[in-house]
Amino acid sequence: MVKNLLRGVALLVAGLPLLSCQAATSAPIPAATSDAPLAKAPSHETAVFAGGCFWGTQAVFERVKGVVDTTAGYSGGSAATAHYDDVTTETTGHAESIRVVYDPSKITYGQLLRIFFSVAHDPTQLNRQGNDVGSSYRSVIFYANDEQKRIATAYIAQLDAAHVFSKPIVTQVVPLKAFYAAEDYHQDYALKNPGNPYIYVCDRPKIAALKQQFPELFQKYKGE
């Protein structure tokens, strides 16, 4: 984000590495064996995920077929502290999150989770993603109902049992109490700022990975 962008530029100027914020695998991970079937009729359901800076998470999910809308925001804390300046103090309990509105007749919750773990972030990093460090960058699945909880918990157990990642998954699975939309300038940030050094290093590779690993689910986003 802004503070991390400035830090990243400083690292590059100093000749030090700007760590990638990508997932821990270079190939698609296994599909969820416990998942809801595709719905018979179109409708809208909501999923909320947190996995590092919400710029990149949104950049991934808004390019997924079956996703109707995405919003960058905050979850895990109170309404009073759901503001960027407060969240960056790492004292609010909030995680930078993405609200994904999707059509369950076109994509399942388990498929969204597969993308979340495959290309949106590295679920083995505790309270960080690359150079972004702090609890606001933690990996979280905020479930909206018992079915989402069941699918998410079973999928994490499946991936850990298969040793898909070299380290254990640290993703939290917690109930969604509230989601607060972030400031307007955070929305679609990666799309609007493709040449930004942070976006170039951390987020554009995620979009490329989505297209490469899940071509059947990839769609161009508006304005591209």
List strands and helices in order, with pairings.
Blueprint: H1 2-13, E1 45-51, H2 54-61, E2 67-75, H3 84-87, E3 95-102, H4 109-120, E4 128-129, E5 132-133, E6 139-143, H5 146-161, E7 172-175, E8 180-181, H6 189-192, H7 197-213
Parallel strand pairs: 6-7
Antiparallel strand pairs: 1-3, 1-6, 2-3, 2-8, 4-5
Helix pairs in contact: 2-4, 2-7, 4-7
Structural write-up:
The chain has 224 residues and is an alpha+beta fold. It has helices at 2-13, 54-61, 84-87, 109-120, 146-161, 189-192, 197-213, and strands at residues 45-51, 67-75, 95-102, 128-129, 132-133, 139-143, 172-175, 180-181. A 6-stranded mixed β-sheet has the order 7-6-1-3-2-8, covered by helices on one side. It has a two-stranded antiparallel ribbon with strand order 4-5. β6 (139-143), α5 (146-161) and β7 (172-175) form a beta-alpha-beta unit. α2 packs across α4 (109-120), α2 runs parallel beside α7 (197-213) and α4 (109-120) packs across α7 (197-213). The longest helix is centred in the C-terminal third of the chain and has 17 residues, at 197-213. The two termini are 22 Å apart. Residues 1-18 have low confidence and may be disordered.
CATH architectural group = 2-Layer Sandwich
Main sheet summary: 6 strands, mixed
Instruction: Please provide the count of β strands.
Output: 8
Order of helices and strands: HEHEHEHEEEHEEHH
User: Whole-number radius of gyration?
Assistant: 16 Å
Q: Which outline best applies?
A: globular
CATH topology: Peptide Methionine Sulfoxide Reductase, Chain A
Query: What would you give as the CATH superfamily?
Result: Peptide methionine sulphoxide reductase MsrA
User: Helix segment count?
Assistant: 7
Q: What's the rounded overall pLDDT mean?
A: 91
Strand proportion, as a percent range, falls in 15-25%
